[in-house]
Design goal:
- Residues 28-251 form the Solute-binding protein family 3/N-terminal domain.
- Pfam families: SBP_bac_3.
- InterPro entries: Solute-binding_3/MltF_N.
- This protein is an alpha/beta fold.
- It has 2 domains: 2-112 and 213-250, Periplasmic binding protein-like II (D-Maltodextrin-Binding Protein, domain 2), CATH 3.40.190; 113-211, D-Maltodextrin-Binding Protein, domain 2 (3-Layer(aba) Sandwich).
- It contains 8 helices and 10 strands.
- The chain has helices spanning 2-27, 50-61, 76-85, 145-152, 166-174, 185-194, 223-238, 241-250, and strands spanning 30-33, 41-42, 47-48, 72-73, 89-95, 104-120, 138-141, 160-163, 180-184, 202-218.
- Helix 2 (50-61) runs antiparallel to helix 8.
- Mean pLDDT is 92; it is low at 1-22.
Length: 251
């Protein structure tokens, strides 16, 4: 009996050490995001959104002391450069592409997305194929997936109005100063509503990419820690928390 108790004690101690190490690893990460509603955004009083709440649930599952108060909201281009140059960092939400894949370690996907060309209804913009993309001007966020997808399809920066904030692109589109916006479709429509405009006044002219959103970690992040984050995401999906979060924003 004494040997059994000793073995149980050793097992409990080992598990405790493992859990502490996992939490410590997560606690060492600096989490960065951008203004990208409904996925992640600062609503004026706190950082919130689908991606934020999912990550918060994952960190809780891992035993981490990190909370949403520890998440920084930065311009996308700034966060994108920082997560490539500074170890122990994570940027979200990021669309996985072939070009980006080797630059980071990835956890996800946690939601499917469409990167689309959004136009004002009645604008006359007609895009039947990628060959038509070069005919128009686009509002884009610097280093965002929309900008990358346009460039990959041969659209030069001369056809892009590059900004750091989406609201300025929406104003330009509404006033006819640009032909379209290249951005994530759900986020675009969500932000159109936030500005008081009517989503019925806008059309999806073309889908540049169907993809998924991920948490992107600096490439030197240990694989074991990435696996623990992925396991936590899978658990959050399986226990019902994930669906409750989605329903609270998208229903």
């Amino acid at each position: 009996m004494k040997k059994v108790l000793t073995l149980i004690g050793a097992l409990v101690l080992t598990l405790g050490i493992a859990c502490t190490a996992m939490a410590s690893g997560a606690d060492d990460i600096t989490f960065m995001t951008e203004q990208y509603p409904p996925f992640n955004y600062d609503d004026g009083s706190k950082v919130t959104g689908i991606s934020v709440e999912i990550l918060s649930a994952m960190l809780k599952e891992m035993g981490s002391s990190k909370t949403t108060k520890d998440f920084s909201v930065l311009p996308w281009a700034q966060g994108y450069k920082r997560v490539q140059s500074q170890p122990a960092t994570c940027l979200f939400s990021m669309t996985l592409t072939d070009a980006r894949k080797p630059l980071f370690k990835w956890v996800g996907p946690y939601i499917e997305t469409n990167i689309s060309v959004i136009t004002k209804k009645g604008s006359g913009v007609k895009i039947d194929s990628a060959a038509d993309l070069g005919k128009y001007t686009y509002g884009v966020i610097r280093d965002d997936i929309g900008m990358e997808m346009l460039a990959a399809n041969g659209v030069g920066e001369g056809n892009m109005d590059i900004t750091a904030k989406m609201d300025s692109n929406l104003k330009k589109l509404d006033k006819g100063r640009i032909d379209a916006i290249a951005y994530e479709q759900t986020s675009t429509m969500f932000q159109i509503k936030q500005t008081g405009m009517n989503t019925a006044d806008f059309d999806v002219a073309y889908v540049l990419k169907n993809g998924g959103l991920y948490y992107a970690f600096h490439k030197d992040t240990p694989d074991a820690l990435i696996a623990e984050f992925q396991k936590a995401l899978d658990t959050v999906k399986a226990n019902g928390t994930y669906q409750k979060i989605l329903d609270s924003y998208l229903k």
